Amino acid sequence: MQNIVIIYMILVMLLSFSIAYFQYYFREKNTHKITIILFFLRVLSVFMMLILLINLIIENEVYTNEKPILSLLIDNSKSIDFLKESKNVSDLLSEFNSNTKINNKFSQNQFQFGKGLDVLDSLTFQDNKTDIYNAISEVQKLNADKIAPIILVTDGNQTIGSDYEFLNSKQPIYPIVVGDTTQYSDVKITKLNVNKYSFLNNQFPVEVLMNYEGKEKVTTEFRITSEGKTIFRENISFSAQKNTVTISTKINSNSLGVNFYEASIQKIENEKNTKNNSKMFSVEVIDEQIKVLILTSILHPDLGVLKKAIESNKQRSATISLINDFKNQINDFQLIILYQVNNKFEQILNEINTKKIPFLFISGAKTDWNFVNNQQLGFKKIAINQTENYGVINNEAFMMFQQNNIGFDDFPPLKDFFGELIIDKEFQVLLFQNINGIQTSNPLLAIFNNDNHKFATLFGEGIWKWRSASFLNNNSFEDFDAFIVNLVAYLASTKKRDRLEVSAESLFPSNSIINISAFYSDSNNKFDPRASLEIAIKNTTTNETIKFPFSLVNNAYHATFENLNSGKYEYQVAVLGENIFKNGRFVVTDYQIEEQFSRANFEKLMKLALNSGGKVFFVNQSNNLIDELLENESFYTVQKSIKKQQSLLDLKWILYFIIAFLSIEWFIRKYIGKI
Asked: What is the model's pLDDT at position 73?
């Protein structure tokens, strides 16, 4: 490139001399003594103009020094404040900011983390969750190809995310342990398993897993209470060898509606942290039993998965039958699942439409869409003879019933025929279709409730993969099974739809964000977006009442609020200007997941450091860490050369010189009378 530029420069120079010579010396017999100055002025101005016209590109090599990057990650969660280490962490940050030697050797990048990772702004130590794995991983992505040691200032107690203990790090990590590492005697409830629903005059199981940290033998009491009354108690013993106890019991469900309970362990001697000795839970008692019929035209793994998920709730039963073999009456069932419909379903579909029996329609590669399109079900598909994989996008605005996002967006795609969906009835989307990473407006799972006929459509086969993916993510089928149970419970419910429906959880941890959704329809049972909704929340202890307006988001009304004190609350959602309202209640517990730890997790931080090639330091050993960083010769400044190409058109000074040379030439010619 440079050789070509030189050749062009020589040619342009020769042409400039030729033009100037032709003007001032060619056929000129008498030349002025100052002509030589005019000659060179013309050569320079023509040379520069020609350079600009051909737009020559010049290449420069620039050298830069790149310091190693020192990433400082500071735990901004509540556990730091709970362990009374806030000042020590702030002092440590100030020390790194003011250390001249560190700043001379490194370029510092400072971050704060809790649930997510953010650039360090101001430390509040108010994050409700800690994800150490995510914080380290995100910083490593930023500095993937650079020399970038990581300083991790934390107590090592992670509450969400993947286990960071065996994280594969290309950068050395230097944990600074914050908090007391002394092991105190402590008993705590680590896990509580209970069904979300139970049935009237039945019993629901409760399983509680408790752990003990300590060396001495201790005996304490475990209780389950409700409304101040003890409904279960049992003495339990722990020792250094027997540090885990599991209690399983059954509790009577005698009262309809949401019932609140508290599981607790009595404090042991010298126990420092009692925040983790209790945990609240709630159970909704309902009075219904549901029988589900799964009618299918083929055998498929989806059928067994649906049956298992439905029967995970003992008040649900599912019967699988091939359409050719079905001889019973569909009146014996509260819900029909139609799997891979073909023309053999005609009689069943006629009966379903006539009697308005709830159903779940699941299509796939064996569905006869030509037949389905003629059944007036409220939906059609102009399908071609080619299948497509449909990914999943969760609809956060869905509110026909309460359904948490169980990781839908990461679930494998479902298979169905490719084609255009046509839906001519009112519906809400629970899951959208995602085609090759692009979200569409077409539903993957849609819920209908028209003319007192409830049904749902799932456009794709392969739901068995969802249950497997859910197990891999959570080491349990519980979330997926609860999703199917919720869907079945809603569809099979014979309760008439009210104009105002409210969806809310009954139990919230302290300082969590509380979301309450509402759906309001007009007198024709169609969603009404013109209404103004308001929620009034009353603390039953202090009688303090606060009000919040609802916001309209995607065909549903939503109210979001936080920072409620722990306690029991009653709420009323009202449609302003109408005599329509709904009441409910919920409890904000004083449970703080960040306050469940009584000491820093030195052991895990030590393994993290060893696996990454770093070292562990305590918060009072910052000087030792600084010396380690300064003396480590693997952290060195790298000199890099960068080749930059630049057009001469970008050099404004060339234009200034052209104007100057031409102006001087003009004045001289004027002076000597050449003009």
From this structure: 94
